[in-house]
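Hey, I'm writing a tutorial for new members on how sequence and structure tokens pair up, and I'd like a real worked example in the thread rather than a made-up one. If someone can provide the structure for the chain below, I'll link this post from the tutorial.
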Amino acid sequence: MTGIVYTETVVHMAPEQLASEAPYQLVIVTLSDGKRVTARITGEAVSIGDAVELAETRDGVAFFKRA
């Protein structure tokens, strides 16, 4: 699954269950079929307009990485 970063933000003050992972990057990705999905980024940070691809899914959360 591939797409383009529509928007992004970095979470610094995470909920208690994710506090140990902060800071982390959240994105909305426009997929190749035009749908959008909210996901996290793994690896190198991305910017709006960057191409990304699905790296894995953990506990129902999609993790994308720079393509």
